[in-house]
Amino acid sequence: MKQIRLFSGFFTVGFWTLASRILGFLREILLTAFIGPGPVMDAFVAAFRLPNMFRRFFAEGAFNAAFVPMFSKRLEGGENAQGFAQDAFNLLVAAVLALVGLAMVFMPGLVWLTAEGFYGDVRFDLAVDYGYVVFPYILFMSLAALFSGVLNATGRFAAAAAAPVLLNIFACTALIAGAISGGEVIRWLIAVIPVAGVAQLALVWFATERAGIRIRFGLPHLTPEMRNMVRIAVPAALAMGVTQVNLVVGQLVASKTEKAVSWLFAADRLYQLPLGVVGIAIGIVLLPDLSRRLRADDKVGARNAFSRAGEFMLLLTLPSTVAFLTIPNPLVSVLFQRGQFTAEDTAATALAVAIYGIGLPAFMLQKLLQPLYFARENTRSPFHYALVAMIINAALAFGLYPIFGWIAPAIAASAAGWAMVGLLAFGARNMGDETRFDDRFRRRAGRITLASVGMGAVLFAAIQLFGWTLEVPGWRYLALLALIMVAAVSYFAFGHLLGAFKLSEFKTALRRS
Questions:
Q1: Rounded to an integer, what distance in angstroms lies between the CA atom of residue 362 and that of residue 386?
Q2: Can you say whether residue 89 is alpha, beta or left, with left for phi > 0 and alpha for psi between -120 and 50 degrees?
Q3: Running DSSP on this structure, what letter comes out for residue 154?
Q4: Distances (CA, A) of 104 to 98, 132, 133
Q5: Contact status, residue 447 vs residue 454, Cβ threshold 8 Å
Q6: pTM for the complete prediction?
């Protein structure tokens, strides 16, 4: 079996995802500065969430969960993997084209279903208008996800991981150009999104060609293999898209309060940074590796892969959680507070960041546990668990709104995330030893936790002593950078001293990546 280098893959995907998230931060900084929380930004968030929500179902969700394990096993067994990919591509094109056509016809209904609080004011018409322009983005991104799945299954992670960077480059360029030209900045932004989708698709398509797998447009055929894939994909769509569904439910509740959609969106962008870098990297690299190891009956290797992925997840998740709970205000203030983004917006967004921070480990653990099911082509169990989690999320979001107001969706999302993790862990208990963490993981988990707590204590002390520097104009960026450096140094120092990890492991992984 051709080995997939786990840590090398994690670092490759993590690096490019980090680059994308940093540029995404720049995009949100420009968006909040030039436009700011209000009707226009609320409308853009609601419109752009529509293709992103369906992308989770059709691309990262259904197709990755169903297509990647099946393609990986055919690749491992030499069973015409290219023909399988071609049939899947044809079927996906037909399905997403039908979805885009329906969305163009029923766009007002889609906006009403996902942001009912907009109805009757200017935000509704703006969201519908923007939706017509940005929704076709899903076609390009869904096809790009299939090519990315092919590349990941063959152990080629760089091009697929780098593709999302293009969206943020295009978006930042459009925002700056719009501001310089003196026109409507938002019009520049929405117009460039489909163009960025074409560029992303072109990048991964070309990379797939270079990998020796040729895929072209053709008529779809519902072969027995495709029927089986669809059978697996349908429940996977909801299982993998539960976070997006919860976000839409949250948006529906938050739309009743002006600016709340924008506040939650800004907070979501912040906690998505570690979730994207770590969680997505684990999901992308672990799923094809587990699928191929299970096909080869390599249970020892599967357990090692699962445990090392768990270590990698804890290593970066716990300190991120501690930081979100300890310094949410400085993070939001320095990153977003400028232009149209006021101190009131900072306080509201920081509260949401702290609450999402509580749920961050749960969102990460889902990315770790779901491949255990998908690698076995079991998507029904995660589907059932996702239904329970969505019911919990909706009940809490709507039920807590009269008590806590607009912040209720953040509380609900974190609680539902932990409920989903509990169900996934409970369901995996009888899958065999390969789904249980090994002794090395158990030894290191507690030490990583202690190192994170130690980092939190250092951060708290630093804020008490030097927090005033974050308010000094011209110095606030350097002050935040210094604070992050203090956190990183203290965390790695505590971790190394406690034996939570060895710094030499990072050097080896970086060399391999």
A1: 13
A2: alpha
A3: T
A4: 10, 6, 9
A5: no
A6: 0.69
Biggest alpha carbon–alpha carbon distance for the chain: 67
Tokens of 510: 């970086």
Query: What are the residue boundaries of the structural domains of the chain, listed by start?
Result: 6-437, 440-513
How far apart CA 411 and CA 264 sit, in angstroms, is 11
Instruction: State the Cα–Cα distance between residues 391 and 407, nearest whole angstrom.
Output: 18
Please choose, from the candidates 486, 449, 495, the residue with its C-alpha nearest in 3D space to the C-alpha of residue 464: 486
And the tokens for 208?
């797939």
pLDDT tens figures, 128-174: 999 999 999 999 988 888 888 888 777 777 777 788 888 889 999 99
210-234 pLDDT, tens digit each: 888 888 888 888 888 888 887 777 7
Task: State how far the alpha carbon of 233 is from the alpha carbons of 69, 142, 387, in Å.
Answer: 11, 14, 16
The answer to whether the CB of 171 falls within 8 A of the CB of 28 is no
Confidence of residue 84 (pLDDT cuts 50, 70, 90): confident
DSSP per position, 204-228: HHHHHHHTT-----------HHHHH
| Residue whose tokens read 């949250």 | 250
pLDDT for residue 512: 46
In the structure encoding, which two tokens stand for residue 407, read together? 């912040």
Find where tokens 């500065």 sit: 33
Close Cβ partners of 169 (under 8 Å, ≥ 6 residues apart): 23, 196
Are 91 and 220 a contacting pair, CB within 8 Å? yes
Q: Which amino acid is at 97?
A: L
DSSP 433: G
